[in-house]
Amino acid sequence: MSGHGESFAELPVAPKPPLRRFHQARWDEPIIFELSRPGRRGIAVPQAEGPGVELPASVRREHAPKLPEMSQLHVLRHYLRLSQENLGFDLNIDVGQGTCTMKYSPKVNDLFAKATNPLHPHQHEDTVQGVLEIYWRMERMLAEISGMSRVSLQPGSGSAAIYANIAMIRAYHNANGGEHRDQVITTMFSHPSNAACAKTAGYEVITLMPDAEGLPDIEALKAAIGPRTAALMITNPEDTGVFNSRIKEFVDLVHSVGGLACYDQANANGILGITRARDVGFDLCHFNLHKTFSTPHSCGGPAAGACGVAPALEPFLPEPTVDRVEFDGNERFVLKYPEKSVGKIRPFLGVTPNVVRAYAWIMSLGAEGLRQVAETAVLNNNYLMHKILQIPGASVPWNSRHVEQARYSWQQLSEETGVHSEEIGTRAADFGVHYWTSHHPYLVPEPFTLEPTESYAKEDLDEYAAILAHVADEARRDPEFVKGAPYNQTIHKIDMTSLDDPKQWAPTWRAYVRKHLSGQG
Amino acid sequence: MFTVGFVVNPVAGLGGSAGLKGSDGTDVQREALARGARPRAGERAAQAVRTLLARRPGVRIATVPGPMGVEGAHELVRPPAPHHPEPGRIAGGVGLTTAEDTRAAVAALADVDLLLFAGGDGTARDVLDAVQELGEAAPPVLGIPAGVKVYSGCFAISPATAGFVAADFDGTTAEAEVVDLDEELYRRGEVSPRLYGSLRVPAARAALSGRKAGSSATAEGTVEGIAREVVATMRPGIRYVLGPGATTLAVGRELGLATTLLGVDVVERGGSGFGGVGGVVVGADVSEPELFELVRGERSALVLSVIGGQGFVLGRGNQQVSPRVLDAVRAGGGELIVLATQQKLATLNGRPLLADTGDEETDSKLSGHARVITGYRESTIYRICPASEEFQI
């Protein structure tokens, strides 16, 4: 749709137009279960020689699992096609997935992670000293990065890590005569998992709204704290990318009433090596290794978290911890079970391959490298912000300095053209990029959130900004055309209403068959 | 010389404290007066005049004589054509005027630089009619909120703010919507706002109250959660005053009570029977005097919702909750429980909740932070301030 009318006749190979003439593959690929054919096999396993083993009836299943029956080629082709119908990190300029911290996951780290494949979680610790040492060293590095005394790598990331922290907060208060503390305070621009996990753990949630500067209203915090306060769970910088420079006052206020302060550092990309959670008095924090520490996002799959605590919270850490002991003059790594542990959040030790990937990433950078990551991410964000704000109709609320991301608004463009932020993002997908708007409810009208990490080069950011500028211009010239997008994508618009209708939800193929296919025909 | 015209709809707001939901039509106005309502539009217009004169001393004020004018005007314009041969003076000292009188007064003041009118959505419709008749000759206008329902976007958020905006007016205007409800349907519990048109108002976005935004249909589950939370914290022996709105109606429903959508109801929670849920309606759709009698000397609490887009908690659609009712509730140790979905608070764009009871002292007593219930076991602490203090440049 772009670059039409330009002359490419001068050179044997025509130069590329300023905007990519992208077109996503469309394979109309069915669900893998629909591709299954009875009896088809990927591998013909030879009949085992020797005597057969009779499994006891108690462990034998009555019916074979309904797995898709496919050949190797069909499996390979299926997943390659799906990957082409996708805008994954390795294909697009993924700065539009704001708050998700999309950064390059070095492929070499997959090789190191692969080395852990032969390990079994039930192996005796004497036989896995190497991987336990990695856990221990990784913990020490994260403790240094956060200022916390201990860090557990046992929980998953995101909500699993936040839940681990709220579980420790509850255990701490219960052990210290604070059973009556039943309120958790969070903020509107903190990740909503903080409110969700606190509520899941049985707490009443008080959410502070932003003040006129876009920061959580400290006067409201003063009114909210009291003897019922269990904890403050807060992100900083918040989703807006604005750093709350009064954060120490927030922590001190909560401490003054006996509450704990918990720092959601899932995304610590803008502050690595610059500021530390413990230095302003936080009692707990967590990291998502797939955000700041470069392990793959894996569609929300096997990500690993890290929960850091101050000394007073150590007895409540998830189990097991990995400790170093001296034994006969030698260093040994052992599993320990803290006396008042909140238990296991994930099975076994945690997600070992991702701990190895993140360990390799930190080791490759060193302390200076980590700080450079933050500085480059902040520089990239401010460069992109400068470019975006030159687009007529785009703005960023609260004229404050931004750290690693920014939540922008198309309010003016939308008022002038009738085109909404979602529609602009969908049209951008015709150029091979995308963006995310905002968590709900939308406090910023017509929002979009961009977060260029340290992974991107200047020309990537220039291309991304040029695409948005082009689409904004299209919105003015032909709003209906933008509203009709996408044109170059795998599928057209998605009807989102099913997301609000539990009757239509089908998280598995089995549920889809039961809800939508059975009883038909 | 910069001239600001003033028109007062003296009957605006009469029906509010009387629990009549509006003041359209002389029958309703007579009924309101019979129920003890006092006119307040004149006083609210005078507030705006005082602020205007304090901020821009040399300004010329033009108004019409009689009940549709304001006191303290420097210049009287020729009188509006009296619609009634005998403006019905009755006890309370108010002349009952009609839509035609409003239109005539606007026409008489057509050559001012800015015309302020005190009234509600009904008055705004009459002004819109007059402006449309005048066409190009019509001045920009601005509403001084004085009606029962002030849902249109052409009103300042308080009388003082109207004075400020008038004083700072530099000729730049924007369009603002005029919406109104059919009061007959509204009294029967049907909310059917209709867009009548738009008026040219001073461009001062933050100072205008904005058009009302209702509870959205998708927030249904959240509203139920809010109701459950309110009922969970209710204690027997306390009179809960439920203000108008879909959110407070859900509280009544959660208690198993048929409370009214648009009226002010007083309920009590039942004792330990039926799992502790259930209750009684002590007073349904009460007027201000009835409400005062129900809370005086009793332990009570106020449960009020927020007008989306505007932020009003008091003074819009719930004038029954008067300054003396608030004092009585406070004397009984009662708290103010504010209900709003997060979505609704988001429509305020960081602006505070507003109180505009008509008594500045009462409003300033509410100033500070209020707990706002946003869902089941979910709340926020949100700034509330007198409407007259918000937007003082």
Which features would summarize this protein structure in a list?
heterodimer, A: 521 residues, alpha/beta, Aspartate Aminotransferase, domain 2, Aspartate Aminotransferase, domain 1, 2 domains, seven-stranded mixed sheet, two-stranded antiparallel sheet, 11 strands, B: 393 residues, Rossmann fold, nine-stranded mixed sheet, five-stranded parallel sheet, 13 helices, 18 strands, elongated
Architecture overview:
Chain A: One of its GO terms (cellular component) is glycine cleavage complex. Chain A: InterPro entries: Aminotrans_V_dom, GDC-P_C, GDC_P, PyrdxlP-dep_Trfase, PyrdxlP-dep_Trfase_major, PyrdxlP-dep_Trfase_small. Chain A: This is glycine dehydrogenase (aminomethyl-transferring). Chain A: One of its GO terms (molecular function) is pyridoxal phosphate binding. The complex is a heterodimer of chains A (521) and B (393). Helix content of chain A is 33%, strand content 11%. Chain A has 521 residues and is an alpha/beta fold. Chain A has a 7-stranded mixed β-sheet with strand order 1-7-6-5-4-2-3, with helices on both faces. A two-stranded antiparallel sheet of chain A has the order 8-9. In chain A, strand 8 (321-327) and strand 9 form a beta hairpin. The model of chain A has no long low-confidence stretch (mean pLDDT 92). In chain B, the strands form 4 sheets. Chain B has a 9-stranded mixed β-sheet, sandwiched between helices. In chain B, strands 3-2-1-6-7 form a 5-stranded parallel β-sheet, with helices on both faces. A two-stranded antiparallel ribbon of chain B has the order 4-5. Chain B starts with a strand and ends in a 7-residue tail after the last strand. The longest helix of chain B is centred in the N-terminal third of the chain and has 15 residues, at 41-55. Chain B has 2 domains: 3-207, Rossmann fold (3-Layer(aba) Sandwich); 217-386. The radius of gyration of chain B is 21 Å and the shape is elongated.
